[in-house]
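Please fill in the sequence for the structure shown.

STRUCTURE ENCODING:
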């Protein structure tokens, strides 16, 4: 007897309002590996492939800014072998990324404290930024050694140094000035943040920038995340009513 599988209806993005800036907290790699009896690093490897696929897809559908959370300032707490595996993955990935994303015209940027990484990784990050900076496609921010509290502390320090030296007056300090001193200076705030893996928390990601961001939590682990999951998040986003405190 033939078994017919009912196909999930295709979602269509036609005519919907797309976010200009999407943030993704790429979470759930470890649980994905555990479910399969694999070491956590296998989940990170799979997650990196999904990152490439979803990044290209965002660029194809016309997203202007994509920020992915790859490694937080708190992730250094993890066991040495997991951190080591992640650093190895970043290195091999960043080597490939030099040519990867070229066809899609993607501008690669890193947000976070680069100085926490090895000189080799730092050089690769700079090389990626330099070689892609004149492209005119989607801006991809890769958040590595990123923590939003750390980002805000840096902004406060930089502004107070300028006040102290007389370059700025206290009365110059406003919301725009704070925004301009964050890693995301000059970029629009994220309209939508997607968190796979079903966790209902922000985990130190874009605290200032997310003041009016729409959140979509999805019950899928990041390595299982598909283009159709992104479509689903975009459709949910398109149905939200953003009021910014108004009515
Ligand atoms: C996200 O997946 C990747 C990083 C934080 C580096 P996790 O490693 O946090 O996976 P879970 O949450 O333990 O499943
Ligand atoms: C957030 O995930 C950081 C990244 C996805 C890079 P975590 O797994 O570190 O967050 P918590 O510990 O669940 O809050
Ligand atoms: Mg996690």
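FILLED IN BY: designer on duty
SEQUENCE:
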């Amino acid at each position: 007897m033939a078994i017919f599988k009912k196909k999930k209806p295709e979602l269509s993005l036609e005519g919907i309002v797309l976010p200009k800036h999407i943030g993704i907290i790429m979470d759930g790699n470890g649980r994905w590996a555990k479910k399969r009896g694999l070491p956590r690093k296998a989940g990170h490897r799979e997650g990196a492939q999904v990152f490439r696929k979803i990044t290209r897809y965002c660029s194809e559908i016309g997203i202007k800014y994509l920020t992915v959370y790859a490694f937080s300032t708190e992730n250094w707490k993890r066991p040495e072998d997991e951190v080591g595996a992640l650093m190895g993955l970043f290195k091999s990935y960043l080597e490939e990324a030099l040519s990867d994303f070229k066809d899609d015209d993607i501008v690669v940027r890193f947000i976070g404290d680069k100085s926490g990484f090895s000189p080799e990784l730092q050089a690769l990050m700079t090389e990626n930024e330099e070689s892609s900076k004149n492209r005119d496609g989607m801006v991809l921010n890769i958040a590595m050694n990123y923590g939003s509290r750390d980002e805000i502390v840096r902004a406060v320090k930089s502004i107070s140094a300028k006040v102290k030296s007389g370059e700025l007056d206290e009365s110059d300090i406003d919301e725009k000035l704070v925004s301009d001193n964050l890693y995301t200076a000059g970029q629009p705030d994220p309209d939508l943040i997607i968190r796979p893996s079903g966790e209902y928390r922000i985990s130190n990601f874009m605290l200032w920038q997310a003041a009016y961001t729409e959140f979509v939590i999805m019950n899928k682990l990041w390595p299982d995340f598909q283009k159709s999951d992104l479509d689903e998040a975009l459709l949910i986003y398109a149905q939200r009513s953003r009021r910014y405190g108004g009515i």
